Amino acid sequence: QVAESGGGLAQPGGSLRLSCVASGSSFSLYTMGWYRQASGKERELVATISSGGSRNYADSVKGRFTISRDDVKNMMYLQMNSLKTEDTAVYLCRVYSTGRGDYWGQGIQVTVSS
What we know:
mainly beta, seven-stranded mixed beta sheet, 11 strands, 0% helix
């Protein structure tokens, strides 16, 4: 089971921190990622972090967002700085590993507006 928290309303230029908690064992073996889906648009990758800690970011968030994980707590985070109105979307947590499973959270709303 996967669940997100920390969304809400922020002003342009502001910051938010999203959290994702995953239940179960062997969490450290999974790749984790953040995706987002804006109203009327396709779901898109925001950032991923592998079991070894390698990070990958969408070009649109590079330099502004930072993904991290804490395998002891079974947690993943997304620090979002310098937010823009176009970052407004439902953000979803994904935890996956080939042969072990692919799990999605229900999503959490992030709204960037003045």
